[in-house]
Amino acid sequence: MRKATVRLFSIFTILLLTQFAHADQFKSIGTVDVYFSPNGGGANAIVTELGNAKSEILVQAYSFTSAPIAKTLTDAKKRGLHIEVVLDKSQKSEKYSSADFVAHAGIPVYIDSKHAIAHNKIMIIDRNTLITGSFNFTKAAEEKNAENLLVLKGNKPPNCLRKNV
Predict the structure, then answer these.
(1) What DSSP element (H or E) covers 164?
(2) Which helix (H) or strand (E) holds 153?
(3) 2: helix, coil or strand?
(4) Which of 2, 70, 153, 154 keeps 20 to 30 A from 123, CA to CA?
C-alpha cells in the first residue's frame, strides 16, 4: 500500500508540473547553476546530478534520446533509487528513444497523451534539486542546439505543486 501511495504521489508531482493554469511563483532559496549549449556542459551537469542522487529521480521529458543520461538513470536504478519517467506521446513513435532502454531496466515509463505536446523538460532529484530549461535530454541539445539548462539546488518542493492537485 505504501509503495502504491508513493508511486501515485510521484506521478502526480510530475504531472502537476504540466498542469499550472494559474500557478504561484516559485522562488529559489538555494543555488542556481546555468548552462548554455551548444557544448556548454549541460549533459555532463545532468549526469553528475543523477549520479549524486540518493533516493529518487522523477523525469518529465519532451524528447529523450541521450544515451549517457539513460545509462546514468539505469545505473541509479541498480543502486536502488526510485525512478519514474513521463514522456511526450511523440516518444512512442520515435525511431530511437531512451524510453525503451530505461523501461527494459525496470524503470516505469509513462506517456502523457493528455496534452497536445508535453513539452516540459524537468528532473526532480531527491526532492531537493530541480533541473529544467529548454534543454531536451538529447545529444543534439548538447552538441548542436542553442539551449539553456538550470540546476536549482537546496529547495524544498514548492507548495504550489500541492495546491494544484
Answers:
(1) none
(2) strand 147-153
(3) helix
(4) 2
Amino acid at 99: A
- Distance, in Å, from the CA atom of 145 to the CA atom of 142, rounded to the nearest integer, reads 7
Distance separating alpha carbons of residues 72 and 75, to the nearest angstrom: 5
Residues serving a catalytic function are 119, 121, 126
At CA 67, angle to CA 11 and CA 72, rounded to 5?
Answer: 60
Q: How far apart are CA 114 and CA 121, in angstroms?
A: 16
Please name the fold of domain 2-20+29-163: Endonuclease; Chain A (3.30.870)
All cell numbers assigned to 19: 498542469
Tell the residue number behind the cell numbers 535530454, with chain if given: 137
Q: Name the amino acid, one letter, at 46.
A: I
Give the C-alpha distances (Å, rounded to integers) separating 4 from 8, 9, 11: 6, 9, 10
- pLDDT tens by residue, the chain, 165 residues: 455 444 544 554 555 444 444 455 666 678 899 999 899 999 999 999 999 999 999 998 888 888 899 899 999 999 999 999 888 776 666 666 667 777 778 888 887 777 777 778 899 999 889 999 999 888 888 889 999 999 999 876 554 443 322
Alpha-helix runs per DSSP H in 42-134: 42-52, 67-78, 98-104
